[in-house]
Amino acid sequence: MLVGEYQHTLDPKGRLVLPAKFRDHFSDGCVITKGQERCLFVFPLDQWAEEEARVRELPRTNARARSYARSFFASADSQVPDKQRRVAITAKLQDYAHLDKDVTIIGMSDRIEIWDTTTWESMSEAADDFYSDIEEALSEHGI
User: Fold this and answer.
1) pLDDT tens-place string over residues 101-123
2) Who's near 74: CB < 8 A, 6+ residues apart?
3) Whole-structure pTM over 0.85, yes or no?
């Protein structure tokens, strides 16, 4: 299971050391792609296969679904961590997520997300403000 929050830095070549707790999940490789709210999603290969199937199931007759799938797959980059347990983040993905040096990596159960630390702090603070409300709403709907 991929959970937790970790502070890391990108090196000048755009490489990122994976947190020690996550390394085994990505030892065979991963796929990095655009996520929502300008973060990056990093999927272990088995989870990538599931996500790929989910996106492929979107209706090709829907323009928004086609656009989403194009962006999702076109930005995807397969990686195998190097001996130092680093993955390289492409310049396009760095630009998309506004990554410079300081990044926050969060576990999301089936994937990790990579955030610009300043952006993550703002997102996290805002989420904390309505966390109780969301939990209550989910409980009311039996979720």
Assistant:
1) 999 999 999 999 999 999 999 99
2) none
3) yes
